[in-house]
Amino acid sequence: MEVFGHRGACGYLPENTMESFEHAFELGAAAIEFDVVMTQDGVPVIRHDRDLTHTTDIQKHSFLSNMVDELKAEDVAQLRAIERYPDGRQESASHDGKYHIPTLREVVNHPGFDGRHLIIELKYGKHFFDAGLDSVEALKQILEEADLEQRGVRVTIECFEFGVLRRAKEAIGSRAQYVFLSAPDMLPEGFSELEDELLEEIAENFDGVSVAIPMVLQGDLVARAKSKGLYIFTYTARTETAEGQWRAWFERLIATGVDGIFTDQPDLLAEVVAALP
Question: If DSSP codes are grouped into helix, strand and coil, which group holds residue 62?
């Protein structure tokens, strides 16, 4: 069972920053996960939301918009990361204003990530494409130029949008693995869970599925996904949202049999994994 640093080690440092990514690997993460959005001039940058209000100091600037796709890359380069949950994560919030917003190119080409596993989530793919900003093509170009095989970098691409992920696979091919993201409130109309019909369609197109924690805690989704030849991951393990004591909560998530868990505190999850027989 692998430990994935969710937006880096965002339980300790502002999310989706180079410093958070580096710290996640230091804390024992097998991979880091991060989110890709597009600037107005077509540069993929690392943020979770289109609205930059909650994770950057944009309110200290005089830009006419808070939306990443209404700003140029040179504008985003002026911003600094802040903690999304300052009241609950004061240690992380103490680093507000220190770290820049990385570009996708910067992360993929970072020599410190040679030999590492990068999990890239494409956000708002259809929205950007309809606006003339092709995040799939931008990702393809950056991966082609990154010398991944020579550097030993493993890449997984994930997305909540089936069509966007399928287009990424068609464009990028064997340079990456592909994982479809799902949550209870994002299932197709008429479905209340990932039934076999949906799993079969996912398995015909992709390598794995990543689902919200409630979806693996009931029923037999993990076994059914694996029977289709899919990897199955779950998100997101946090001490702050643990049901009961965090160690027992992490053990319960591991016991579901998933292949990987995304976590904000990779050191604590890795510790629990290492202690299990």
Answer: coil
